[in-house]
Amino acid sequence: MGLLIVCNLLLPALLIIVGALMARFPPKKINALYGYRTERSMKSADTWVFANVYSGKLIWRTGWVALAAAALVSLLFRRFGEGAMTIVNLLLMAAQCVALIVIIPMTEQALKATFDDEGVRKQQP
After folding, report:
1. 104 phi, psi to nearest 5 deg
2. How many Cβ atoms sit within 10 Å of the Cβ of residue 28?
3. What gap in Å lies between CA 24 and CA 88, rounded to an integer?
4. Residues 67-72: contacts with CB under 8 Å, at least 24 apart
5. 3-state DSSP call for residue 102?
6. In the chain, which stretches have pLDDT less than 50?
7. Which of 29, 62, 97, 119 has the most CB within a 10 Å radius?
8. How far apart are CA 122 and CA 125, in angstroms?
9. SS3 string of 1-27?
């Protein structure tokens, strides 16, 4: 059962680390290997940095929320046995994956609100 708890806390810990790195040290050049890579984020250097910093902050926050939820649920459900913990941990991991997927439309919406279709920053009103 201890391995399940460790696995359940591993993804949030990785999210915290990766999110902090992306937000503080976004990839300097648009590349095909790492970073927040979508058509809109790769329009210009400005959209690239914005998308990586923005999504990095979201990933970092998601990691902390997921870590708190995983720790709390693990503490609350561990007395119900290994079968219950397995189901709860699988549900938690699925929720963590859904939270990661939701970051994509949130970042795309922020990009669309901040930049035009050519990747030029919109004028502030």
Report:
1. -65, -55
2. 11
3. 33
4. 67/9, 67/12, 67/13, 67/16, 69/95, 70/5, 70/8, 70/9, 70/12, 70/96, 71/9
5. helix
6. none
7. 62
8. 9
9. CHHHHHHHHHHHHHHHHHHHHHHHCCC
CB atoms under 10 Å from CB of 102, counted, come to 12
Q: How far apart are CA 61 and CA 117, in angstroms?
A: 28
> What pLDDT score was predicted for residue 12?
93
Say if residues 58 and 107 touch (Cβ distance below 8 Å). yes
Q: Take residue 72 and report the two structure tokens written for it.
A: 């709390």
Distances (CA, A) of 24 to 19, 60, 78, 93: 8, 11, 36, 26
pLDDT at 43: 94
Flag whether the pTM goes above 0.90: no
Q: Residue 54's closest CA among 114, 120, 112, 107? A: 107
**Nearest to 49, CA basis, from 16, 27, 31, 24:** 27
